[in-house]
Amino acid sequence: MGRQPLVSIVLITWNSAPYLQRCLEGIRRQTHLERELIVVDNASVDDWPAIIGKAATDVIRNDDNRGFAAAANQGIGASKGEFVLLLNPDCFLEAEYCAELVSSLQIAGGKFGSATGKLLLADDPARVDSKGIRMTRSGRHLDIGQGEPDFEDGDAEVFGVSGAAGMYRRSFLDDVAIDGEVFDEDFFAYREDADLAWRGRLMGWRSLYVPDAVAHHVRRVTPAARRSLPAAINMHSVKNRFLLRLKNEGMYLALRNSPFELFRDLVTIGAVVTVERSSLPALGWLWRNRRRISAKRRAVQARRRVSDRSLAGWFQ
Q1: How far apart are CA 84 and CA 87, in angstroms?
Q2: Which of 77, 118, 147, 151 has its CA 20 to 30 A from that of 132?
Q3: Side-chain half-sphere CA neighbours of 143 within 13 A
Q4: How far apart (Å, rounded) are the C-alpha atoms in residues 132 and 162?
Q5: Are 289 and 186 in contact (CB under 8 A)?
Q6: Distance in angstroms (rounded) separating the CA atoms of residues 165 and 63
Q7: What integer best gives the mean pLDDT of the chain?
Q8: pLDDT score, position 2
Q9: Sorting pLDDT into bands at 50, 70 and 90, what band is 225?
């Protein structure tokens, strides 16, 4: 047998102590032995250092909460692996998770830049949390199978992978980075994984779902729970909904999807103006940063290798 490729596990923490012990246990149980663990902490005030102990190869401590996207970029920048597993602390990996994803990516070939296993709901393991990302014509991105009963299925190509436990080839991360950023730090948190998936698709990369790799995820942010979420989370969700499309959507898809997108946009803006006024700063941010967004769009579109017509089938 040949030497195993190194897998870099990037674990981002922010007051995540209640989940860390189980998360670390899942990492320790991995049958893929060639791995490193990089922990990036966003100014937590809990006892995470005592829980992490000596488990990490490298620890990066931020003085303030830089957001998920920036912390992920820090971890990726410090990593050395041929494969990078981005892992949420509220995710528990079964023992074969890394081994199955690495093997499947190697078999699938070099154009598959990312892979995800089958994520099950931690509080109901008979139901699915995510089998990857799917896109809708209304401009939403959703987790495939979320809340549905689990069943046996096979490997499949998906639009992209959830950042909760997504594995990426180093070559993919290097190729899709824009101005040194793999994840766009303007997203701060939420939808940054969909942005990366869409950008990867534009640049000709593909994504894989591997059901033999199993993990359990505590799903805390859902549309149904929106009214109970912190205002900052909802604000970023609104901002990033528009930012995702403004950067990645070409004219063909914009015209094709416009009846669906415009209706949902009006509903979203109406809700922000009347019910969820704490999200109004999202609209102000988009306006103030319109030139910045335009520059990012130009950078992405200049490097696209795949037409919107070829991608249209992914938007259902």
Answers
A1: 9
A2: 77
A3: 27
A4: 6
A5: yes
A6: 25
A7: 95
A8: 66
A9: low
Q: Over 90: is that where the pLDDT of 231 sits?
A: no
Picking from 89, 76, 156, the residue whose alpha carbon sits closest to that of residue 116 is 156
Rounded Cα distance between 212 and 117, Å, is 7
Q: How far is CA 155 from CA 42, 158, 200, 234, in A?
A: 35, 10, 20, 34
Q: By mean pLDDT, which of 40-54, 140-154, 219-233, 291-305 is the weakest?
A: 219-233
Q: Where are the beta strands (DSSP E) in 3-111?
A: 7-13, 35-42, 58-62, 83-87, 91-93
- Cβ atoms of residues 197 and 160 within 8 Å: yes
Question: Percentage of the chain surpassing pLDDT 90?
Answer: 93
Q: What one-letter code names the amino acid at 187?
A: F
Instruction: State yes or no: pLDDT of 1 exceeds 60.
Output: no
- Give the distance, in angstroms, between the CA of residue 134 and the centroid of all CA atoms in the same chain: 12
Name the pTM for this structure. Answer: 0.95
Neighbour count for residue 154 (Cβ, 10 Å): 8
Q: Are strands 112-121 and 124-130 parallel, antiparallel or unpaired?
A: antiparallel
Specify the length of the chain in residues.
316
117 and 210 Cβ atoms separated by less than 8 Å: yes
What are the two backbone dihedrals, phi and then psi, of residue 272, each rounded to the nearest 5 degrees?
-65, -40
Q: Which residues pair with 121 in a beta bridge?
A: 124, 217
